Amino acid sequence: PPGRAHYEASRDALVQRLGALDAEIRSALAGRGRHFLAFHGAWRYFAQRYDLTEVGVIEEAPGEEPTPRELGALARSARDAHVSAILVEPQLSPRIAQMLARDLGVAVVTVDPNGDPSDPVRATYTGLMQWNAQAFARALQKSAGVPEKGLDTRVHPLEGQESSGGSTDVGDVSWNVPTLHLSIATAPAGV
Q1: What CA–CA distance (Å, rounded) separates 50 from 156?
Q2: 45 Cβ partners below 8 Å, 6+ apart?
Q3: Mean pLDDT across 108-134
């Protein structure tokens, strides 16, 4: 077809950029904890790709908060797995995450499944994935179940911003980015 060379060159450049991004994310997560407890199943493909393990889901159906019994069971599982941080997102209320973080004595770290066109760091797919990889790395580097002295357990300053979510662009390609509520990340045993 007309323009074939241009399309093939664009495809090859995109494949190269995505390959470099994949290697960067793998490097950021190397030597970190591998287990997390998700608010819902939004990070399952990310977890599968980067050899992480989802140990449970807090909210089985959208808008249905866990019962006190379910939260208690999740807290026990999180303690058993040496949870080190709770991942929250700027689009949703951190109330449950803050409560669970206080109960567990762990940090709160923000991840963003939607991006933000007004923030140059999170305005593109590549930038957003790099930002999230660094957030996962910070959450997973914390010591196993023992908060660092002086650890900032406040929610990231983005907390409370409203966003309808949607898609993020990489050049001429638009990617749907799933909405994530919160995750609890764990450090490896013995760290």
Answers
A1: 24
A2: none
A3: 92
- Residues 147-191: pLDDT tens digits? 433 333 333 334 333 333 333 333 333 333 333 334 444 444 444
Q: For residue 50, give Cα distances in angstroms to 31, 47, 72, 118, 187.
A: 12, 5, 28, 28, 15
Contacts of residue 64, defined as CB under 8 A and 6 or more positions apart, other chains included, come to none
Q: What's the chain's length in residues? A: 191
CA 175 to chain centre: 17
Q: Of 69, 149, 55, give the one whose Cα is nearest residue 107.
A: 149
CB 185 within 8 A of CB 85: yes
The one-character DSSP state at 148 is P
List C-alpha distances in Å: 18 to 34, 73, 158, 160: 22, 38, 27, 31
Q: Name the pTM for this structure.
A: 0.70
Q: How far apart are CA 77 and CA 75, in angstroms?
A: 5
pLDDT digits (tens, 9 = 90+) for 76-105: 988 888 878 777 778 777 788 788 888 988
Integer-rounded Cα radius of gyration of the chain: 18
**Which pairing describes strands 173-177 and 166-170: parallel, antiparallel, or unpaired?**
antiparallel
